[in-house]
């Protein structure tokens, strides 16, 4: 299982960004890594998951861990694609509506298993769509161009060899690669595999992602917060997104009691999972605690991002397993999961896909940007009109209206109403139209 | 549980299309219903599934069976969105960089549960992002605009009431509808629900879809076909698509032995499932058998479609349960599942969504059409370039390259290369770029 890592990328980013740049006591330290840097790094450190055999009926969304090769010629026999008459094409060359060719009717081909027939020159047999052509027959004349008259069939239109048939290996040749390694299986692919007699596939196991939350202000979602406390949201958000991205979430709960608690929980998670996501408390000292604990057991590879608004993200490694520290605000967590963590899961699963797919939409209003900065903005999509959502930090309900993310690169002054934009979106399920609460 | 049926639509279609129009012995009988007619009919006969309670962590993709209402004000206290100082905004009105206002430092607010503080005029307290504002405080001054100097804090910028805070009910007010009935839950919604302390939701149960195959030429996918036989593909395709659409597939295998066999299997399936899909054999008499068996136990409501290429589809009803008869060719099955059956599952689940979402792409080549006909064409999408796939009947491998479906309405002569088109797509996972086998 050869790793396709680009270690130099990791090393370079490590050099540039390992030491967070402090901007004074009170401001969180902000690195200068871009989202692109973070994605490169995370793709370079993602470990492969093991290869497992799965029944095709339970393989939708899995990534092939080995190419799928056809064992047989498919369909395996010359097959009619029309209801009509199996003929030797050469016998029909002089046929026309005014001067039909007459062939001797020599019986019917049954669909399904039937004894092997051989067609003599000057004869024909009825055949249904899907039927196996008799030997020495090389084409089918459609019913519309043939008329059975006693023991004789009148053909009013010539056919060429191969007309209205599928050749015995036209769907697939034995030994041909049907699907390459790295292909994500879709429902239609599973149908194809069944049709080709391939009922099990070698796929990458789903990566197991450990999920931890930190913050003294957190209570469980079904708890009752006192003044100053809030419900823990991120582990639910991260779990559901991991499942959507084809990973298995494994929750470890909330680390309340500072570094020792977090440290112990992290060690357990590292021993049981393929990668770990820690979502941090909202306060400054809480964010630093995550980095401190990762450093204690492994190494910090990236700290801080240069995007707007500032996102505190930590990428580290413990025992070869990626550790991602995310901020506390659910909207930031959502954004970084889609932009960065989605890549981790893709690489671990061996997928050739890079990031999430984009679709087009039209800017519903002017979207201003400062040319010095790069923006990733959560948006609503309403009949292809893109409306940016207000980004008041800490509002959970922002996510209710979030349908995707747009990117405004550094150097741009923004986008005018009516311009075509690319939107990154995970679910393609739109929030309802009548929820303008957070529009600006 | 009030049904929102439009029975008149069903009745109308029933009247118009109940009797298939025969075009002679050899040609399959073709009705004149459009895809739109079929969708209207199927939406009108779809029964609701029951409502069940689910833990939010297992509710992704489910449709709400009742509105979700906030039980509390969220966050429940005025909350800081910045690291800084909690103040009375009025105390800062005269502040400027050259003439800072001096406030008495009166301690720190800890994040998480802490005793209730009250701020006196002329004083301030340090507060972190997420902290609960003390009583009588109505704004936060960011650290950047404040300097702690012994027992005194110098404020260099005025704030207004509400600056840098979230009000106690700004995220949600107790009693407010957070999500309406019919909303499909997404990962981000599950995060929001957790944050609002809602850990269970009322959702529509997944519909159970019975799946039957007919055809004397079929062998199971893991069987070994003899000459003239092919592997049963459609039940795998339909199962995987049902799961993707949020339904539970229930397979009943292959009806080999003609009408009696099919009739018995169909009765069992009707007693156990919410709707049934029968994929027919490829031959003419086989297709008629499905309609005959449905008629025996219930009623045929629609038979045949006017789209190109001709698709033989039967819609019926037995004991109030929809029965869909599909053709045998997997590519036709795929197309009709996406165009028509997806609507059945959506309505059964109570979703407000209508059909599959569309995205934009650019025609990669000229696509010709006959103005007399309506087309639904399977396509590949390669970096937003849309390439129609060849449609040779019976080739299973067509599906390997199929990324979506385009619609060319009646009256159109087709689409020119470079024109923008809408594509309907279920998975948004693209087939690999290097598989030009079926391009034309």
From TrEMBL, chains A, B:
<feature type="domain" description="MoaB/Mog">
    <location>
        <begin position="210"/>
        <end position="347"/>
    </location>
</feature>
<dbReference type="Pfam" id="PF00994">
    <property type="entry name" value="MoCF_biosynth"/>
</dbReference>
<dbReference type="GO" id="GO:0006777">
    <property type="term" value="P:Mo-molybdopterin cofactor biosynthetic process"/>
</dbReference>
<dbReference type="InterPro" id="IPR005110">
    <property type="entry name" value="MoeA_linker/N"/>
</dbReference>
<keyword id="KW-0808">Transferase</keyword>
<keyword id="KW-0501">Molybdenum cofactor biosynthesis</keyword>
<comment type="pathway">
    <text>Cofactor biosynthesis; molybdopterin biosynthesis.</text>
</comment>
<dbReference type="InterPro" id="IPR036688">
    <property type="entry name" value="MoeA_C_domain_IV_sf"/>
</dbReference>
<dbReference type="InterPro" id="IPR001453">
    <property type="entry name" value="MoaB/Mog_dom"/>
</dbReference>
<dbReference type="InterPro" id="IPR036135">
    <property type="entry name" value="MoeA_linker/N_sf"/>
</dbReference>
<feature type="compositionally biased region" description="Polar residues">
    <location>
        <begin position="12"/>
        <end position="21"/>
    </location>
</feature>
<dbReference type="InterPro" id="IPR038987">
    <property type="entry name" value="MoeA-like"/>
</dbReference>
<protein>
    <submittedName>
        <fullName>Molybdopterin molybdotransferase MoeA</fullName>
    </submittedName>
</protein>
<dbReference type="Pfam" id="PF03454">
    <property type="entry name" value="MoeA_C"/>
</dbReference>
<dbReference type="GO" id="GO:0061599">
    <property type="term" value="F:molybdopterin molybdotransferase activity"/>
</dbReference>
<feature type="region of interest" description="Disordered">
    <location>
        <begin position="1"/>
        <end position="28"/>
    </location>
</feature>
<dbReference type="InterPro" id="IPR005111">
    <property type="entry name" value="MoeA_C_domain_IV"/>
</dbReference>
<dbReference type="GO" id="GO:0005829">
    <property type="term" value="C:cytosol"/>
</dbReference>
<dbReference type="InterPro" id="IPR036425">
    <property type="entry name" value="MoaB/Mog-like_dom_sf"/>
</dbReference>
<dbReference type="Pfam" id="PF03453">
    <property type="entry name" value="MoeA_N"/>
</dbReference>
């Amino acid at each position: 299982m050869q790793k396709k890592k680009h270690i130099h990328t990791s090393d370079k980013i490590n050099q540039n960004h390992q030491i967070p740049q402090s901007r004074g006591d009170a401001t969180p330290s902000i690195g200068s890594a871009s989202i692109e840097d973070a994605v490169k790094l995370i793709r370079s450190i993602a470990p492969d998951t093991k290869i497992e055999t799965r029944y095709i009926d339970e393989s939708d969304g899995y990534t092939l861990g080995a190419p799928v090769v056809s064992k047989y010629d498919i369909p395996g026999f010359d097959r009619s694609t029309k209801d009509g008459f199996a003929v030797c094409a050469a016998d029909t060359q002089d046929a026309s509506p005014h001067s039909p060719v007459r062939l001797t009717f020599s019986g019917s081909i049954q669909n399904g298993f039937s004894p092997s027939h051989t067609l003599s020159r000057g004869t024909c047999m009825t055949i249904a769509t899907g039927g196996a052509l008799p030997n020495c027959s090389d084409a089918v004349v459609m019913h519309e161009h043939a008329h059975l008259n006693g023991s004789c069939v009148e053909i009013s239109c010539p056919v060429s060899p191969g007309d209205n048939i599928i050749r015995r290996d036209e769907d697939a040749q034995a030994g041909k690669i049907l699907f390459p390694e790295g292909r994500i299986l879709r429902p239609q692919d599973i149908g194809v595999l069944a049709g080709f007699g391939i009922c099990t596939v070698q796929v990458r196991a789903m990566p197991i992602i450990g999920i931890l939350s930190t913050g003294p202000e957190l209570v469980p979602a079904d708890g009752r917060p006192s003044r100053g406390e809030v419900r823990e949201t991120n582990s639910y958000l991260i779990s559901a997104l991991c499942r959507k991205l084809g990973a298995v979430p494994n929750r470890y709960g909330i680390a309340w009691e500072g570094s020792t608690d977090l440290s112990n929980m992290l060690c357990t998670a590292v021993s049981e999972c393929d990668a770990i996501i820690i979502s941090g408390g909202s306060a400054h000292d809480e964010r630093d605690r995550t980095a401190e604990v990762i450093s204690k057991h492994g190494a910090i590879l990236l700290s801080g991002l240069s995007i707007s608004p500032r996102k505190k993200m930590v990428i580290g490694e413990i025992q070869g397993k990626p550790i991602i520290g995310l901020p506390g605000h659910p909207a930031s967590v959502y954004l970084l999961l889609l932009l960065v963590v989605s890549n981790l899961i893709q690489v671990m699963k061996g997928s050739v896909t890079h990031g999430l797919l984009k679709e087009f939409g039209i800017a519903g209003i002017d979207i201003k940007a400062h040319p010095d900065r790069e923006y990733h903005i959560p948006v609503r999509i309403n009949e292809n009109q893109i409306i940016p959502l207000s980004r008041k930090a800490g509002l959970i309900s922002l996510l209710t209206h979030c349908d995707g993310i747009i990117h405004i690169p550094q150097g741009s002054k923004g986008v005018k109403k009516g311009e075509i934009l690319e939107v990154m979106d995970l679910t393609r399920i739109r929030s309802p139209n009548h929820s303008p609460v957070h529009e600006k």
